[in-house]
Design a protein that fits this description.
By secondary structure, this protein is α+β, with helices and mostly antiparallel strands. The protein is built from four helices and seven strands; from the N terminus they run H-E-H-E-E-H-E-E-H-E-E. The strands form two sheets. Strands 2-4-5-7-6 form a five-stranded mixed sheet. The longest helix is centred in the N-terminal third of the chain and has 28 residues.
Length: 183
């Protein structure tokens, strides 16, 4: 902060900010590896998702909700909130919009976060859930990530008994599905 050269000072500050974000996400990822300690409880998933979407909309973000569960679901609410929030944040960051979609089928609740972005190269769909594997290829300081966001969401989803998967949409964009057991 005391450097005279403004351009060098700004670059160093950006580097420090990036390192701080990486350390913060690394610590969060490490914590998720030890399992979630939050107890599972019955939850009105419709109310949780409606509140989350309303919060995004209140701050001017283009996030919508489609579908309903219509029955309580047993899960760890804070962990699920973090998973869905992470996925919506990613959709907003990389695609500019997000649609949270809920379906109930075959004994599972599927919460999908759908965007209209570029999608992910097919060879990277599975690798995107691995730690330190950013899917955004530009390595741009403003849009590139640490490669931990989806890993954290995946680890938390696993901790609550859910399955997280990535799917390119035929019409373009990405759909990230979180499949929760209903029992």
């Amino acid at each position: 902060e005391l450097m005279d050269d403004e351009a060098v000072r700004d670059k160093l500050q950006q580097d420090l900010d990036a390192m701080q974000a990486l350390v913060k996400e690394g610590v969060t990822y490490a914590r998720t590896l030890h399992g979630e300690t939050e107890p599972a409880r019955r939850l009105d998933l419709d109310a949780l998702l409606e509140a989350m979407v309303a919060d995004y909309q209140d701050t001017g973000h283009p996030v919508t909700l489609e579908g309903r569960v219509g029955a309580p679901v047993a899960t760890r609410p804070q962990a699920l909130r973090r998973v869905v929030g992470n996925l919506v944040d990613n959709a907003l960051k990389y695609a500019g919009d997000a649609r949270v979609k809920v379906d109930v089928a075959a004994g599972r609740v599927v919460v999908s976060v759908v965007d209209h972005g570029p999608g992910v190269p097919p060879r990277q769909l599975g690798a995107g859930l691995k730690p330190f594997h950013p899917l955004e290829g530009s390595r741009n300081r403003d849009t590139g990530g640490t490669g931990l966001g989806l890993s954290i969401a995946h680890q938390l989803a696993t901790a609550i008994g859910a399955r997280l998967s990535l799917h390119n949409r035929p019409e373009g964009g990405l759909e990230v599905r979180v499949e929760l057991p209903t029992a």
